[in-house]
Amino acid sequence: MGLVVLLALVAGGLTWIAVSTAAARNAPEKIVDAYLAAVVDGRIEDAVALGGGVPDNMLPDLLTDAAYAAAGAHVTGYTIDSTGIDSSGATVVASIQQGADEFSQSFRLTRTGREAIFVDTWALDPIDYNSIRVTFDGPTGSGVTVNGIAIDEPVESIIARPLAALPGSYVVGAPSADGKVQIEDDTVTVDSFTADVDGVDATLTASLTPEGEAAGQAAAAGYLDACIAQPVLAPEGCDFYAETGDGEVVTNLVWSVDPRPTFTIGAWTPNGWEVLPDAPGTIIGNGDYSLPSGEFGTVRYTLSNYTYGGYLTLVDGVMIFTFSGSNASGGGGVTS
User: Residue 150 in contact with residue 163, Cβ under 8 Å?
Assistant: First the structure.
């Protein structure tokens, strides 16, 4: 009898030890601790595996060991603040240190089974990561880089799907596809594991290089050159024209511009880089005229203080100017 009692006590003690050990090992906060420790240690791929992978609607390129090592403002530490368990799962709240800053982060876990009969086992619910949305304010580049590392995705895919990102700072850039354009980097900071909104925006703004500025000025001037090259009273595709009197016939018409209007090329808009009038110019038309009465002579048309504007776009490496309007009010001329 004594032996049976002793065996029962030993078995009970071993069972209690097994249950206690399993409970300590499988506590929800232990799962979160393992996840956060992997992030702090830079074992990002291990952390992502613990966190349920990358959401399908995000690109995974920044959730690698190398990509996070290249980021700044890493997660540097954490403390587990509380654990709450309910019928549907568990919630663990942690304080996260990100350099000199700190933020609170909740993690949700779901039961996955039992160990040692009585002990729940847990896994992190898939983490809906924060993200970086890349947009271009101007022509797109030939690719996208983050912290100097090329993202191995087509530009169209990066625009369409955000890059999942851990807390950190990221320098987003894009090599230009053309020497006429330079694309400015944008530095963004992700300050939480998950986002209540649609992530962080990285906007890559395109501006013209000196080569692009010269090409843009030439394209804007080329519009007027094409107009004055037409020896007609109303040049096609242009907003100025010369008026004639009753029965008057004008021949040998030659248009010229002196002085030429000048422009300033502004910022990118949804229509392209805006071409803004700077100094006005004067359009002059010289020709010969004749009247039914037999009178003939020379005629001169003058349109003073002429300015115009428009937009510039880059198409297959060629700067294209699109006219948007002028101060000509329908054009006109003065005879002499």
Answer: no
pLDDT tens-digit readout, 5-55: 544 444 454 444 444 444 556 699 999 999 999 999 999 999 999 999 999
| Domains of the chain in sequence order | 26-124 (3.10.450.50), 130-207 (2.60.40), 210-326 (no CATH)
Q: For residue 134, which of 107, 109, 153 has the smallest C-alpha distance?
A: 153
DSSP-assigned beta bridge partners for residue 130: 165
Q: What number is the average pLDDT over the span 58-77?
A: 97
Spatial contact of 333 and 241, defined as CB atoms under 8 Å apart: yes
Among 166, 163, 162, 164, residue whose Cα is nearest residue 191? 166
Distance CA 295, CA 249 (A): 11
Dist CA 311 CA 273 (whole Å): 5
- Residue 47: what residue type? A
Count how many Cα atoms sit within 13 Å of the Cα of residue 172 in the half-sphere of its side chain. 29
The 3-class secondary structure across the chain, one letter per residue, is CHHHHHHHHHHHHHHHHHHHHHHHHHCHHHHHHHHHHHHHHCCHHHHHHHCCCCCCCCECCCCCHHHHHHCECCCCEEEEEEEEEECCEEEEEEEEEECCEEEEEEEEEEEEEEECCCEEEEEECCCCEEEEEEEEECCCCCCCEECCEECCCCHHHHHHCCEEECCEEEEEECCCCCCCEEEECEEEEECCCECCCCCEEEEEEEEECHHHHHHHHHHHHHHHHHHHCCCCCCCCCCCCCCCCCCCCEEEEEEEEECCCCCEEEEEEECCEEEEEECCCEEEEEEEEEECCCCCEEEEEEEEEEECEEEEEEEECCEEEEEEEEECCCCCCCCCC
Distance CA 305, CA 262 (A): 11
pTM of the model: 0.80
Closest Cα to residue 90, out of 108, 76, 105? Answer: 108
Cβ(204)–Cβ(137) below 8 Å = yes
